[in-house]
Amino acid sequence: MRDHFTGDSVDVRVNEKCGAYIMIEPTRIGPTEELLHKHGISFTLEDGANSCIGTPEAAVIEFGKDADLETIQRVLDSVN
Predict the structure, then answer these.
(1) Using CA atoms, how far apart are residues 66 and 2, in angstroms rounded to an integer?
(2) What does the alpha-carbon distance between residue 1 and residue 79 come to, in Å, rounded to a whole number?
(3) Within 10 A of 63 (CB to CB), how many other CB atoms are there?
(4) Strands 19-24 and 59-64: what pairing?
(5) What average pLDDT does this structure show over 38-59?
(6) Cβ within 8 Å of residue 46, ≥6 positions away
(7) What is the pLDDT of residues 40-50, one digit of tens each?
(8) How far apart are CA 40 and CA 22, in angstroms?
């Protein structure tokens, strides 16, 4: 999956407090939720104002501290 702002791939990041997460542009929330549900990946969608990490310009999808980072990244990388 590519970030539409930068063209870079969306990478799973880890925060000591929140665990694994990705930041995406809000217009990609629906398709990203579908993709994650399809692959059985649990997540919480946070808005910028209330997320552990984030800004109003970016949606944050948090996977938690026990997330399988390799699986999540593989699923994200499967989308162009």
Answers:
(1) 24
(2) 5
(3) 22
(4) antiparallel
(5) 75
(6) 52, 54, 59, 60, 61, 62
(7) 999 999 865 55
(8) 16
Residues 18-28 have pLDDT tens digits of 899 998 888 88
- What is the identity of the amino acid at 10? V
Tokens 């390799």 correspond to what residue? 70
- pLDDT level of residue 13 (50, 70, 90 thresholds): very high
Amino acid present at 31: P
Give the C-alpha separation, 41 to 50, whole Å.
22
Q: How far is CA 13 from the centre of its chain?
A: 9
Q: What is the largest CA-CA distance in the chain?
A: 30
Q: What pTM was estimated for this model as a whole?
A: 0.82
For residue 54, count other CB atoms closer than 10 A to its CB.
19
